[in-house]
Each structure stands twice: as C-alpha cells, then as structure tokens.
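Worked Example 4.2. Consider the chain below.
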Amino acid sequence: MPFSFLGLSAPLIKAIAEQGYTTLYPIQKEAIPAILDGKDILGIAQTGSGKTASFVLPILEKIQDQSTPTRNRHIRALVLVPTRELAIQINSAFNVFGNYLLSKVKCLAVHGGVSINPQMIELQGVEILVATPGRLLELISSKALSLSDVQVLVLDEADKMLNLGFKEEMTQIFDLLPSKRQTLLFSATLSNDVDSINKNLLREPIVIKVDDEIANLDLIEQTAYKITEERKGPLLRYIIIGNDLEQVLVFTSTVHRADMVADKLNKNGIKAASIHSKKSQGTRTAALSLFKAGKIRVLVATDLMARGIDIKFLPCVINYELPRSPKDYVHRIGRTGRAESRGKAISFITPEDEHHFKVIQKKMGKMATFVDGNDIDLSSF
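Applying the procedure from the previous section yields the following structure tokens:
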C-alpha cells in the first residue's frame, strides 16, 4: 500500500516521495489513519520501525487543515523525548515532511545543554514543539509558553524516559495539559511504568505492536572476532582499513572508552569522533552531522546516544565492547540492515565475554560467524 492511500494531502505525499520513501512500515500503515481519525495510540515499536513518520505525518496533516490561528506561545502539538539528539532528529522530520505545505507550520526543538534565551525568543508562533521534559518545564516557569491549547501529545520512547528518571517531570507536565486532547504513546517495551502511563493517559487506544527490528536481523550479517583486550584497537583499524569501510558506527560501554577509541583512530589517520553525554550539545550535533555527511569515517558512541542516530543506509556497526543486555545488543546492531538494505554487525569477544555473548545469541535466536582474531597479523595496525 502506498502512502497516497492513507488520506495524506498532496504536499505531504510530495515530501515523502522526495525523501525516497516508497514502502509503508507496518506501524505507519496502522497508526497514520488512526491518528488522522483522532484515536489515541499505544505503539510498542523499536527505533528504526518507522514510528517517527507515523506520528509526524498525521500531525502535520491535522494542523495544516486548521483555519483558526493559534494564540502566540500556545502550541498545538507537543512531542516529549528523552534526549537532545532525538529532539533534533524529530524536529528535522517535521521540517522535512512539512516543506511543501501551503500553510507553513512552525516547529521547534527545545532541550538542555544550550542557552535557554534563544529558545524563548524562537517560541514566537511555534505550533509544534519537540522537547525534553526538563527544558520544557524551565520554559513554562519562565512564562515562555503555555500548554493549555495542546491538541496532540506524543510521548516518544516513554520507556527510556522513565528509565532516565523523568517520571516526576512528566507528571508535572501532564497536569498542565488540557484533558481533552489526543495522546500518542510510543515505547520499545510495555513495562509496568509504561502500562501505568497508558492506563492514566490514553482513552480506548489503538494498540499497535511491531517487532520490525527483530525481523530485520535477517538482513544483518553478524561476525564475532575472538580477541584479547589489548589487540582490540589494532583489530578495529585492520577491519576498517582492510574492508575500506567509509561509514562505521562503533559502540563502547563507557564515555572514557569512547573518547579513547576515537583518539586512537585519529592518531592512526582514520577520521573519527566520539559522541556521549559528557560532550557539549554543539560538539555532539557537529559530530553527528559530519558523520552523516561522510566527512568522518567513524562515530564512536555509547548506548544512550544511539537513540539519536538514525541513518537509513548505515553499512556497518562494530561492538568494541558488548552491551549488558540482549535487548541493547539488538538495538545496537539494528542501526544497520534498515530500509531493506543489508548490513554488517561485528563484535569483539574477549575470553571474559564468551559466556555473555552465548546468552545474547540464544536470546536473539541468531548465531554469529566466529573468527579467531588472535590468528590475524596485526603488526602493521
């Protein structure tokens, strides 16, 4: 089924086609018509399942159809997200898909890590706001905006927000919203906390559960290199140079290790940058932009930062260190093998990691091809 069958207007269809999207993801097929019909949504779907477009497109459609102008600093739609990167990414999606609308819809992303004053000024005339909870409450307390006219509330990655301790802030925000509104809740899992929010916020929701990321594992070639800890750095350079990889996302478990890996790559002539919570917002945004533009070959990231990394045709992901859970492993390697294109996922397995990796593979139901990295001559790397 093409996007044109969903009841979206010609300007949105034009923007969709310009971005090269031709096939509907399952969540889009179910969510877009339901949102256009005013239904509440509970969507259980991983990042990479197409959920961003599933709420961005119908929100733009609904807002552009409204003839009554909004009161200044009274937004129509609010999207709550856990990280700055995700806020920027979703705001970009609103702008890209809304590019051809006859009545321009002003969108804005607000988040911490940058000065609040420019955001307060930019809120003039904003209809769609994408926000992290803390910065949103700061703006409200400064009388920079009101939530009293919000028609649509979106909670994206609600499970991650609850894990990061935003529950109290979210409760404060919910109390400021009008009771008569449409609410769309998206989460990777249906935990007890998420289920509690669902029961308190949603009214007879349409429930959509999608396991696209698990299905996409069939498109990912998984290789595991048995290696000692001290040989990981040379092996990483060997893989990148030997396979002429031009765009690689490398995962580490700690901020310190992310910086160390990126520094070592740069010293060996491989352009790289690290991205993690200790970096300033400007540095993180610049690194991600350079990586997407192909101006650096390697982006080294921690798990939390992966939530803002959405690249349609990322060819390779490398686990320099394994994550703690099988779910996080699937989330990491799910950055590749997207949009029906094949991808590669490589993991470095030390002797101490072998049992943990067996557990990950068993939970995942997929086996990686093992290579003994200790037999590779790494002396020139």
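DSSP finds 15 helices and 14 strands in the chain. The two ends are 50 Å apart (CA to CA). Compare this with Example 4.1 before moving on.
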